[in-house]
């Protein structure tokens, strides 16, 4: 259910669940009316927060929402299942005069701002993956060891690490809140043919 993440109900738990749903529904309606976007989105169960974020971006400019966008991103799982939605969201980070980039930078945490500040104008990013399509993912890292961990996480016999040199201007945002030295890139705006691909054995 969009508002609750819990086991299948039994006859004895149905009244309690209905009460919880009514309470959640009121909480979501109140947050929407107050334009408290953070409360509105996070009142939804995790798998449905990307859809709640989409609702918000339907009535509010991205420039006013980058902080909550970042929070939803860091809380999300199975990003690839919502690739098109995230492509649309992150694409809003580029505009003709750079205004959106300034808004994104202002929404970053101090830890992320420090990482951004300390990076040179051109630097290498890495992405660990286990199938060809995953190379087009958004999330890269400046930390090769972290990319190696992601490459091996699938447990497949053979995985890969891609390395690519980029400029700061090509990064949508740089995040270090989870100590992953994460760099968000849009595959459509970078040349993946420039990647150096390294095979990684999980044996």
Could you characterize what this model shows?
There is one protein chain. The protein has 203 residues and is an alpha+beta fold. Helix content is 40%, strand content 16%. The protein has helices at residues 14-33, 37-42, 49-57, 66-75, 83-91, 99-107, 110-118, 144-153, and strands at residues 122-129, 139-141, 158-167, 173-175, 182-184, 196-201. A 3-stranded antiparallel β-sheet has the order 1-3-6. A 3-stranded antiparallel β-sheet has the order 2-5-4. A hairpin with a 6-residue loop joins β4 and β5 (182-184). The model has no long low-confidence stretch (mean pLDDT 88).
Strand order of the largest sheet: 1-3-6
Largest sheet: 3 strands, antiparallel
Q: State the order of secondary-structure elements, H for helix, E for strand.
A: HHHHHHHEEHEEEE
Number of strands: 6
**Rg result:** 19 Å
Fraction of residues in β-strands = 15-25%
Secondary-structure-derived class: alpha+beta
Unreliable residue stretches: none
Question: Helical amount among residues, as a percent range?
Answer: 40-55%
Distance between the termini: 40 Å
Provide a count of the helices: 8
């Amino acid at each position: 259910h969009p508002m609750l993440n819990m086991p299948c109900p039994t006859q004895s738990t149905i009244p309690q669940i209905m009460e919880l749903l009514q309470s959640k529904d009121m909480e979501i309606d109140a947050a929407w009316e107050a334009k408290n976007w953070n409360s509105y989105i996070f009142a939804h169960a995790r798998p449905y927060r990307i859809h709640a974020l989409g609702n918000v971006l339907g009535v509010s400019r991205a420039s006013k929402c980058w902080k909550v966008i970042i929070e939803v991103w860091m809380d999300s799982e199975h990003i690839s299942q919502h690739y098109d939605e995230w492509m649309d969201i992150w694409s809003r980070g580029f505009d003709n005069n750079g205004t959106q980039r300034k808004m994104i930078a202002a929404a970053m945490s101090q830890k992320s701002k420090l990482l951004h500040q300390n990076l040179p104008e051109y630097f290498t990013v890495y992405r660990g993956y286990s199938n060809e399509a995953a190379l087009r993912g958004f999330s890269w890292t400046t930390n090769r060891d972290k990319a190696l961990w992601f490459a091996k996480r699938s447990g497949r016999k053979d995985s890969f690490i891609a390395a690519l040199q980029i400029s700061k201007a090509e990064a949508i945002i740089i995040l270090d809140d989870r100590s992953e030295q994460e760099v968000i890139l849009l595959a459509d705006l970078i040349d993946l043919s420039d990647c150096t691909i390294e095979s990684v054995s999980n044996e």
